[in-house]
Amino acid sequence: MTSGYSRDEGWALEQDRADSLAWCRGQFELPTDGSGRPLAYFCGNSLGLMPRSARAAVEAVLADWSRLGVEAHLDAGRPWYSYHEWFRDRLAR
């Protein structure tokens, strides 16, 4: 053992309880096994866990598309025409 690490389950559960980011867990959809238990998620080549807020955001875009068609480029709740502006500076860096 180094740095206070232990393979003991009790130690791991205590670390989970003390985790300052534990509140974030409820913000994401966790994949589950056949019995509904959450799975460990270790995949570095993916989008990661889906934020629960993503579903509503995607559904809002789909609703605009359904209601407005091509006009959603300019008239949607979040107009599509300016999507590139949200990412331009970050992608440029």
Helix and strand topology:
Elements: H1 9-18, E1 28-29, E2 50-51, H2 52-68, H3 72-75, H4 83-92
Antiparallel strand pairs: 1-2
Number of DSSP E strands = 2
Strand count, sense and barrel status of the largest sheet are:
2 strands, antiparallel
- Helix-strand category: mainly alpha
Radius of gyration using CA atoms only: 20 Å
Sum up the overall morphology in one term.
elongated
Q: Return the average pLDDT rounded to an integer.
A: 90
Measured by DSSP, the beta-strand proportion falls in under 5%
Helix content: 40-55%
Specify the number of helices: 4
Notes on the structure:
This protein is mainly alpha-helical and 93 residues long. The chain has helices spanning 9-18, 52-68, 72-75, 83-92; strands at 28-29, 50-51. The chain has a two-stranded antiparallel sheet with strand order 1-2.
Descriptive labels:
mainly alpha; two-stranded antiparallel sheet; 4% strand; 93 residues; elongated
Structure, briefly:
The protein is mainly α and 93 residues long.
